[in-house]
Amino acid sequence: MKKLIIDLDDVICEGGFFTLINKFLNSNYTLSDVKGYYMQSLIDDSKLDEFFEFLLESNMYNYVEVIPNAIEVIEKLNDKYELYICSSFIIPSCEKNLGKLIKDKCDWIKENMPFIKFSQMIFTSEKHLIDADIRIDDSIKNLYGNSDMKLLFTSYHNTNFKDDELAKEGIKRVDNWIEIEKLLLK
Questions:
Q1: Which of 161, 107, 108, 112 is nearest to 137 (CA)?
Q2: SS3 sequence, the chain?
Q3: What digits encode the pLDDT tens for the residues 42-70?
Q4: Where residue 93 falls among pLDDT bands split at 50, 70, 90?
Q5: Which of 1, 22, 159, 171 suits 32 as a labelling partner, its CA being 20 to 30 A distant?
């Protein structure tokens, strides 16, 4: 079986972190207001510590939405591939009590994808260290490493990369889970 690693945030589910930013700020920002990769750039530096405490107390996975078709396709992929959910748990500037964030991720995965075993969950910010035949992630830096197929899942922060740029890196863009199903479940 080929080894497949799939990112969690902004690939399988989305919106929790952003929802908590708006709750914390009592604002109505949209993703178009975010400049760059880090959503927390919307928060004044003087309030970041307070926000990260709020984030860790709140469980952002209570606010996420499943990306359409993700769970159904992943369940099918799980039968065909040696599949792992590989998610970072490091949030820059928020390094205390990250164990809670891992627990929140695990709980969400178990509740929403009961077919995924704990042994299929990997938590690391250094995804390039993990060999896989196929990688699916929303961050280009997480697609580096040994793999035959690298799929960049379209997200608010990566739309500026052109297909020809991605092709030079051996990366193919995918916009949704139906495209992934067609690519990987032929």
A1: 161
A2: CCEEEECCECCCEECHHHHHHHHHHCCCCCHHHCCCCCHHHHCCHHHHHHHHHHHHHHCHHHCCEECCCHHHHHHHHHHHCEEEEEECCCECCECCCHHHHHHHHHHHHHHHCCCCCHHHEEECCCHHHCCCCEEEECCHHHHCCCCCEEEEECCCCCCCCCHHHHHHCCEEEECCHHHHHHHHCC
A3: 999 899 889 988 988 899 999 999 999 99
A4: low
A5: 171
